[in-house]
Amino acid sequence: MTTSIRIEDSYQGYSLDSFCIPKHYEDDLESVLIPYGVIHDRIERIAKDIFTDFGKEPLVAICVLKGGYKFYTDLIDKINSLNRNQGERSVPLSVDFIRLRSYQNDKSVGTIEVIGGDNMESVKGKNVLVVEDIIDTGRTMQKLLGLLEEYQPKCVKVASLLLKRQPASNGYIPEYCGFEIPDKFVVGYALDFNERFRDLHHICVVNDNGINKYKV
To answer: Among 57, 68, 111, 174, who pairs with 133 as Cys (CB 3.0-4.6 Å)?
Structure first.
């Protein structure tokens, strides 16, 4: 299990001038909340904890698309690096993908659409790791966990890069978590706002201009 790093509500982040930000996003962001290098250092620790917890047991790693793909790729790469460098010990990995839709504009909507998951019988009796970009209210994750339980896995654990503190949260906390963040809408490192900002390396806070420009 990985205890998250808490980013306080009072934390203002880094000035955009301190980092290389794509020109087309300069007017749409408030600050850099988590720099790219810090993200990778944190993922390395999460990978180590997962490697330690699962030992030599096979693991099915499920990516929650689209926002989770970058975290997922980097996390799997770091677990595979441990597999190559830990002598007789390694964690056999297989991969799968699912997509959930719960956002419109900057709000998590009440209904959750599950896309995919039709071919998940392979998780029966196996250890499953769900890899998600961010847990907001917790409803989306509970929906996915309920779906997975129908396939009778041996165990299911969740790795989320971010956990947002907000009043509507149902209190769900993942087993592996990178950062606990304030109730701000964040983008970058594959997290999007209506399909924008996925190409931004750092995790940043969107300003009002960015929200108004890209809302649907």
So the answer is: 68
Structure tokens at 48: 């180590």
Find the catalytic residue in 106, 136, 183, 208. Answer: 136
- The per-residue pLDDT for range 124-140, each reduced to its tens digit, is 899 999 999 999 888 88
Sorted by sequence, the CB contacts under 8 Å of residue 163 that are 6+ apart come out as 4, 134, 135, 173, 174, 177, 179, 180, 181
Which helix or strand (DSSP H or E) is residue 109 part of?
strand 107-115
Maximum separation of any 2 CA atoms in the chain, in Å: 54
CA–CA distance, 37 with 46 (Å, rounded to integer): 15
Would you call 214 helix, strand, or coil by DSSP?
helix
Q: What predicted TM-score, i.e. pTM, was given to this entire model?
A: 0.88
Whether residue 196 has pLDDT greater than 80? yes
Is 174:163 a contact under the CB 8 Å cutoff? Answer: yes
Which distant-in-sequence residues (6+ apart) come within 8 Å of 90 by Cβ? 56, 82, 83, 84
Q: Tokens 């969107």, residue?
A: 206
How do beta strands 59-65 and 127-135 pair?
parallel
d(CA 30, CA 209): 9
Answer yes or no: 53 catalytic: no
Place of tokens 């790469």: 77
Residue 73 is predicted with a pLDDT of 95
> Pick from 108, 119, 178, 167: which is nearest to 143 by CA?
108
Percent pLDDT > 90 in the chain is 62
DSSP string, 3-58: PPEEPPTT---B-GGGS---GGGTTTEEEEEE-HHHHHHHHHHHHHHHHHHHTTS-
